[in-house]
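Sample entry follows:

:::
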Amino acid sequence: ASPISVKVPVVLEVIYVSMSGDDNNDGSRDAPVATLKHAIEIAERGKIVIMNGDYTITETLIIDKDLDITSMGTVTINGNQLGIMENSANLNLTNIVFTNAKLATGSVIQDKGNTTINGCTFYSCVTTGTSSAGPVNNLKGTMVINNSKFYQNKGARGVVASQQGTKLIINNSEFYDNDCTSITNCYGIIY
């Protein structure tokens, strides 16, 4: 009998994303993937490192497993006039800039899990609904925001909204030049 060759997929502890990557790569540091969407799909153990660059999404990112997403260098995620992500797991976001998100509610994050945001910047993100939650919408669970900046965003129910029955903790973060007045119903910068 001849030997059978079996290819066993490699499970990486860290998936890397690079502007020069390729989604056919395995996601290692030497062979990064090109898109955050693909990194989320192949991540098994929960850590994604996005390397320096400006990334534009083409569809909302669905996060349904525990992930730690961090930057290596300056990383900007451009929402391309879309909602950027929907989370239903435990999510940590570190040192990422989010911009140009647009959706009726929760244009950057629709959160139904538990999210910790560290050192991130949110600017020029819009929610279009007249009584909808802002760019960051905590629908369920706990959200902790540390050392982050929110500016030039627009939303009726605040730039950050935490719905009834949720927990929101904000530490050492800045909110400035945000607009909650040009929408029919205004509930303040943090709702």
User: Anything to note?
Assistant: DSSP finds one helix and 18 strands in the chain. The radius of gyration is 18 Å. The mean pLDDT is 89. Helices lie at 36-42.
